Amino acid sequence: MNKHGLSRDIPHGVEGEVRRRCKFSCILCDSGLYHFHHFDPPFAEAIRHDPNGITLLCGTCHDYVERGLKSNAEIVEADRRRVNETPVANVFLSVQKPFYTVLGSLIFPTEGPLVTHNGQPVLAVTASELGKLEITADLIDINGQSRLLIEDNAIRIHPDSWDVKVQGPVIRMWSKPKSVFAEIVLHPPNGIHIRDFAIRLGNWIIDTRERGRFSARRIESDNPENICGGIFAAGAIVSEGPLCLNQEGFSMGPSCIDMSYDSKRLYQLADEGKMSQLIREITGPRPRPDGGLVKIQIVPPQN
Ligand SMILES: [Zn+2]
To answer: How much is the mean pLDDT over the chain?
Structure first.
């Protein structure tokens, strides 16, 4: 609380306004991890949380300001300049072996291309010669408007998003008010969980929005309502190879599907970063109350 009785808690609506004006990143270095900083007037003098007097600064840049190594006039100038800039905010990922990529309820425990469209990888985890892992993604949302771009192990946040919030290890993105288009949960250094996302790849829609389940629907391009095939997983799939989509159909690596695996359990384990336990539970046979086993292997036909 300051001398005017103003609390540090900024109302949600004001925070959203500041995030949008500052394009979801530190106005000095474009880091996607930031604090809210009152600069006009400084917090000590503020009588209300004015969205035009608050800006975004990352920890390092904020430190420069607090230590007097950067003047308030520079912050004012950088903040006013922001409106004409189109920065791409960065959130750097820490990525190490073993690395698990979870797309809704589709789990990839391996490296290599994970999802390809017409032969081009759109989601991949690759190892360099030195063994360093790199995750890349280039995913277009269902309206073709916003996309999830990961390159050089950094999530690049699109400045045209409606809102993007980084809370703890969770990055949530909105394409318009009340419309989340992706939620990414990071599990450094061993995993990433991409969910609540509908991805458009040509005549395919990959959807993870329905209770966290994975589906890939092939649609007629002139009528997206008309579904002409695809993969619909009621449970969870562990795939030891890429999901390859093209105009006519799809193929998958050797996979294990657990139709009864409930997405609540999957989310709980994925949220806790217990990816290897998750995979063990899905790929290992589990007795059911009726004595039956729930594990089904899918091995795609050899070409
Ligand atoms: Zn910064």
So the answer is: 88
| Per-residue pLDDT reduced to its tens digit, 152-163 | 899 998 888 899
Q: What is the DSSP letter of 293?
A: B
Our CA angle for 26, 197, 262, nearest 5°, is 125
Eight-state DSSP code of residue 42: B
What is the 56 CA–ligand 1 centroid distance (Å)? 8
Q: How far is the CA of 5 from the centre of ligand 1 (A)?
A: 29
Q: How far is the CA of 126 from the centre of ligand 1 (A)?
A: 29
pLDDT digits (tens, 9 = 90+) for 203-239: 999 999 888 889 999 988 777 778 877 888 778 899 9
Cβ 148 vs Cβ 123: under 8 Å: no
Q: Give the distance (Å) from ligand 1 centre to CA of residue 284.
A: 46
Give this prediction's pTM: 0.87
Hey, where are the domains in the chain?
12-87, 92-298
Q: How far is the CA of 292 from the centre of ligand 1 (A)?
A: 56
